[in-house]
Amino acid sequence: MQVNGLFHQPGRRSIRPSSAGFTLLELLVVVVIIGLLASYVGPKYFSQIGKSEVAVAKAQITAFEKALDTYRIDVGRFPTTEEGMAALLENPGSNPKWNGPYLKKAIPLDPWGRPYHYQSPAKDKDFEVSSYGKDGLAGGTGDDADISN
To answer: Which residues are listed as membrane-spanning (predicted)?
Structure first.
């Protein structure tokens, strides 16, 4: 049977297109919720990044300490400030007691891309290995604080 140009079968409902999709208001509510979540989670996530860089610097300084202690056992002294930590990779002179290299790889830069500072003798200790932190300047607080052995 044909009614108004459409075929109609008795006992069946006519199928009409549904209006699928979201309204603009629903989309705005979802965007606001995502924005609120991002503003809450974002600062907590990015604060952890600074902590991980400090942890990496401390771990690298600890590895340098162990290599420098091994150097001292072999040679009988720590490298001078002039010799620097390069003495851990290459014999700084013709020292027959040098039994290196004391590091497996080249001396890495600190997590902020700057070289570590080495001084021997240092104030109140035999040597000091340090990084000036995120700002690259002596002193500071937080992520900018100096990190040393």
So the answer is: 20-41
